Amino acid sequence: MAAFEKRLLQAPSGFPDLGPKEAIAQRSMLDTIRVQFESAGYVPIETPLVERPEVLSAKAGGEISAQIYGLRVMNPAEGAEDDSKNLALRFDHTVPLARFVAANQGELAFPFRRYAIGPVFRGERAKSGRYRQFIQADIDVIGDGTLSLLHDAEMVSVISGIFTALAIGPFTVRIGNRKVLEGLIRATGLSDGNVKKASNAIDRLEKVGVKATIASLVDLAVEEEQARDLIALLTDDRDTNHVLALLREKEYGPLYAEGVDELTRVVSAVRQLGVPEDCFRVDISIARGLDYYTGTVFETRFDTYPELGSIASGGRYEDLTGTFANRKLPGVGISIGVTRLLLRLIEAGIMPAEKSTIAKVLVTTGLGAEAYGAVYLDQARRLRDAGIPTELYLGERPLDKQLQFASRKGFGFAIITREEDIKAETLIVKNLETSSQYEIPSSELLQTMRHLLK
Amino acid sequence: MAAFEKRLLQAPSGFPDLGPKEAIAQRSMLDTIRVQFESAGYVPIETPLVERPEVLSAKAGGEISAQIYGLRVMNPAEGAEDDSKNLALRFDHTVPLARFVAANQGELAFPFRRYAIGPVFRGERAKSGRYRQFIQADIDVIGDGTLSLLHDAEMVSVISGIFTALAIGPFTVRIGNRKVLEGLIRATGLSDGNVKKASNAIDRLEKVGVKATIASLVDLAVEEEQARDLIALLTDDRDTNHVLALLREKEYGPLYAEGVDELTRVVSAVRQLGVPEDCFRVDISIARGLDYYTGTVFETRFDTYPELGSIASGGRYEDLTGTFANRKLPGVGISIGVTRLLLRLIEAGIMPAEKSTIAKVLVTTGLGAEAYGAVYLDQARRLRDAGIPTELYLGERPLDKQLQFASRKGFGFAIITREEDIKAETLIVKNLETSSQYEIPSSELLQTMRHLLK
């Protein structure tokens, strides 16, 4: 048969293909995230990757976004009805959550905390750093009618827990409030129609800089001095208490006052939840692109790698389910774009992805795995039974090649049995990082490895 | 806006929608499987859920199966090229593995052990127990040119480890060998063209029974007495050593002899790997529907729930990559259909899925979460920091409602702080299963909970 075209062996553009090193690093990151989600009482739901197009488009007034992938049966049996036209791939975790909560509202106990970790799809034009499939890790908590502001604070605590546990470097969760931002913008005298435009301009502040943002506001008919004052306030990076005091001084009407009160209470609860002072700050300039955030908004950045942009974002919304249910279900949530974050951290050399093994121990079989099965297979069995993940080298190659295999994959230790060890009931434990090795009685294998792996 | 049609809130037919109870049970099952995979030295790769149709069809001689879902951009921007016609959803983990190994053969260290746990898609007509999206958990080990038979034995050890850890009930891994089966069939004098048909008939033995299988063989021109003898041998459930001895007595040519030798060596290694004798047996009748198994084949059944069919199956194949690479890469693998297994276990009441919480502790806030934030948020923080997953009830409802919430979700313990506890610096730990409760100094919360959760 003709050879397969080599270029077709690459995963399609925009669809990341993770080899062992990257996949192991991703596993580890996802595990850390999940532990923190579960630590705060969040539980998983598993909705399918496939939803009805009507569901996916409901929030956009029924319009199907160009980014939605539909399905089709490629080679339908003759006469068979193709119902795949009613299927499409999800583009986030929020719409499936809204559908699930609307469908099961009678059985859920509110406040309902759920996490979702899994792939979402976007039919974007593929370019560097843009993925068409990527893993998002979300939590949301949904209330029935009302939802305490303390949940907003808990989001900050969960983000802080995750990035502390990931130990990638110092980070800051920025906490804003849409009502405060809107109050400040309205105070400049802008008409209703221009408030949203100004909010979008401010959202790009960090990207385009102070000067360009002031110019955008002036274009919207804000007086230059007012624009300067507003931007000065938004870029004020004095400490949290100072910023809050400054905001409290101003009188910009009830919506603004409500926002400042919310922000103050959220910050107070963030402290009560033990989030260190240097892991969060108030940042009123956060608008978030999405329209549906109505109160608290979050962004998170690494202090030393600001170029990575926001690594965990979210906020509060007034009603999760919209037209799916005639019940008001407010929520607050955050989302981490894991695939993009992971691959950028690896690429930038910030996160190592060097090992292509999870097991730290390789049982080598230099005398022949089958001829000495009673020895080698028993060593592997004992280690595994003791909870020590162990690879057993079963190819028939000389010991030096097996040790090369071990080093290449990144094992910490190799177990070696020589001819003379068989009768003496001994074995060698070789530390592959230091190259030091110890001869020990075979019966002491477990206690030695437990000690070395500590 | 008009209310959304209720029936559209159900996930599409064939696409399971797991609520917290089922999703928590699935998480736990997947974790157990993963720990066993990693314990034996398997590492993940993460290929996308989307592959090129050419890749998916390569093993079927370029033919696109009716079960493959293709993608399409639903609402393409005008003039934009729709390259989604080159995208389709994977239907198993093996084809993506073959593509990945062919594309990266230069960088992989062989033998290459990999696991894959994730959804696959089949455009089947949806019916009870048939899913269009389901999670498969696979391991495969791939050799370069050759691959020791000991890997086949390791598969049995991994399956045994998984079902022992899942603790659902006694199970038996059945080990067969295609060469032995083919040798036995050929010994009946069947022509080449009928050997495969006879093998398929035998594969259905358990389903259709002895009588119908003999009839099928007779239809293929096997003499009735020979057919009876063959089926008698295949359904012989004497112990492993007896069956092997019986097989060794027969002389049906070199292929048969090779198969019997392989089977004998696999069984010997299975024992050396410590798999208990009552967890496996030889079963020559296993043919497996798939054409590409060439040697060892596996099936696994629960001893007490045979109606669940095979719960972990696989076997050895001569060449993973086929036309993808001009290098012979033999492999052996197993696959567990997790979604189907999980949902049938839950449905049959064999596996409980009763709790909709992972955290065992609920911090109740009967005095008001915000008013007493300094107390309640601190309790939650201390528990979480100590590694005890804890939900913090943040709704403003009376204590009895909060305790109902706790019972409904399946928490083990509630932490209660009454008015008098504030000054006394005490709190109540309530065991929700026994309804017993203890008043303790607040400072002893962690040590008490650690003790109770042991």
Protein model, in words:
The structure is a homodimer of 454-residue chains. Helices cover 39% and strands 19% of the residues of chain A. In chain A, strands 1-5-6-11-10-9-7-8 form an eight-stranded mixed sheet. The first copy, chain A, has a five-stranded mixed sheet with strand order 13-12-14-15-16, sandwiched between helices. Chain A is an alpha/beta fold. Chain A has helices spanning 20-39, 53-57, 94-103, 150-166, 178-186, 192-203, 205-208, 210-219, 224-234, 240-249, 254-272, 338-347, 373-385, 399-409, 419-424, 445-452, and strands at residues 43-44, 50-51, 69-73, 88-89, 112-121, 133-142, 171-177, 280-282, 293-302, 313-317, 331-337, 361-363, 390-392, 413-416, 426-431, 437-441. Strand 3 of chain A pairs antiparallel with strand 3 of chain B.
Summarize the structure.
The structure is a homodimer of 454-residue chains. Chain A contains 16 helices and 16 strands.
Give the key terms.
homodimer; 454 residues; alpha/beta; eight-stranded mixed β-sheet; five-stranded mixed β-sheet; globular
Indicate the multimeric state.
Answer: homodimer
Number of strands of chain A: 16
Largest sheet of chain A: 8 strands, mixed
Query: Strand order across the biggest sheet of chain A?
Result: 1-5-6-11-10-9-7-8
**SS-based structural class of chain A?**
alpha/beta
Q: What fraction, in percent, of the residue positions of chain A are helical?
A: 25-40%
What's the tally of helices of chain A? 16
Straight-line N-to-C gap of chain A: 53 Å
Which of globular, elongated, flat, extended, rod-shaped describes the shape of chain A? globular
Instruction: Provide the residue-averaged pLDDT of chain A.
Output: 93
What low-confidence regions of chain A span 5 or more consecutive residues with pLDDT below 50?
A: none
* Radius of gyration of chain A (Å): 28 Å
Largest interface: A-B, 127 and 127 residues
**Strand content of the residues of chain A, in percent?**
15-25%
